[in-house]
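thread: overnight batch results

M.L. [08:02]
morning all. the overnight job finished for the chain we discussed friday. pasting input first so we're all looking at the same thing
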Amino acid sequence: MAFCIDFKLLRTNGTKALYMYGDCSENFEGLFELDLEKLLSGETSFNTDMKEVVKVIKPCISDTESQHKANRAFSKIYKHYKETKEYLLEGGYYA
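M.L. [08:03]
and the structure it wrote out:
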């Protein structure tokens, strides 16, 4: 079974970023917020629960029981941010 997520940066506010996300067949129904600068600076511990790191504001239709899909998007965004210190504008996770 294929696994496909698309995400797009909606806006930033200081060090926080708000992303829209959803399955590739959906229209970005979900929203989540990140503050990767706090994570990389150590202000937010790497032991912090993912629900605190990836704050789902509105789950996408197919991610209602957990935030697994938002976490997958986070992994791509985090890798990019760690290398560039900039939030990824858009992307996807495909498996």
